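Exercise 7 asks you to align residues with tokens for two separate proteins.
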Amino acid sequence: MKRKLLLAVSCLLLPLAMRAQTPTDDTFTVSDLEWDGEDYFFTVSLTGTKNYVGYNLDIFLPTGITVMNDVDEGYYVYINTDDGVYPYKGKGNNKTYYHTVSCNVLPGNQLRVACASNENKEFTATSGALFNVYVAIDEATFTSSFSPKPIVRLSGMNLTAVEEGRSAKYVPADYACRPFTTGIPTARTLAVNVSAANKIGTLILPFDTALPSGLKAYTCSGAEGDLLTLSPAQSISTCTPYIVYAESGYSGSLSGTATLTDGSNVTDVFASGYLTGVLTGTTVSTGYILQDQGSGPLFYDADGANFMLPAGRCYLTPSGDSSAKSFRFRFDNADGISETLTPSLGEDWRGLLYDLSGRRVIAPARGIYIQGTRKIIVK
């Protein structure tokens, strides 16, 4: 049994009442993880301007961190009463509690918390700690996670005040943060695979590492028409997107210590030059996606279609407007690869025709086609 007061748990929480809602700069915050000698927990606090009578919010926890649960006692969410902290500041040892806090864990690793006073009693401070959430950490999940530091999101937030005898709803903006560093395993071992048939792939990692034998990496910061110019990298840098090349294919694992150089970044999307990499699975509908549509690997225009990009992959995001339906590759000679990778190796790419969707055409009918960097009209 924890030393703090266990909150009452409600199996089902009713939807939020639909009332007039006023935006506010008051905000909830999430602390780093702390260790109490037995378990990890984090504290949710409020930086406010009013003496509220209640609040509710949804906390979306990252994969690998779950709210602890006890069959008899329920979820480990505790009112933060140590040293008379908010919301009961100044009541000394004889605390009187007017508020009830309920919580429930919903699908998607979502913790819903609601606090209310049956007597509309106000909190005794405008800011301070609200409650603690005890959590379990799955080390195996983080060992194989591309995300360098987990992201916590807060949403569905309301703060309730009593004004002129009626309840008033104040709504803080949704909030996302990377608060957890303590207790999060940083040693990662991640699988990397490049098809022997295609030779080309994309890669972004949450750590620095040397390139293994047989795998080359390139940055991309420019293009000439539909031809990308790639510059060789000597190693893999944290949160940097690359195009990778393996002449005979590559299958192996890379290891390192996950770090996050930009602490203000609250997404797992990182851009550099013409490439954007994702460290969590992301749906992409713009830019260019690496595909093999029958003519070897090219970056094809997503053209508004939804593509699920797995963690550790990248897509092409050229600067400015581009009319190209696809992009091919030219490697810098400095790495010993002198060829330009064309839609069909061994053929003169300038003689190949593609329709406006990027598909190779053998026997063109009437219409507009792409030949190299030119448009061809067949009448």
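Second protein for Exercise 7:
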Amino acid sequence: MENSSSRTQFIKRLVEFADRYNITVKLAYYPPYHSKYNPIERVWGVYENHICGDIMDSVETTIRFAESMTYNGKSPIVNLTKKLYETGVKVGKKAMEKYNEFVERMPSLKKWFLTISPGYFG
């Protein structure tokens, strides 16, 4: 499942991030298929209306349209990322045990709400 806290590589990186910057991270996921609660879905709707059926046949065209749209009176900051991210990368169960020591899950919403505290390296 891509939209939950069971993604080990992501949780590992968040634990390391929280520790590195000495901050507490509270992470709340939207349950799957509840896009009406997800603000980015509204932005995609504005973008679809903005392109008005034009064909996004190149990266340059897509970037140009994205840069020229507005949402709530603001233009987005658009950056092209060329880095390839591997899918399916996981942290093993044994390694995750140490990371999970810094993850507190809300009992009634274990997959959907968690708090990550610093202290992994300290």
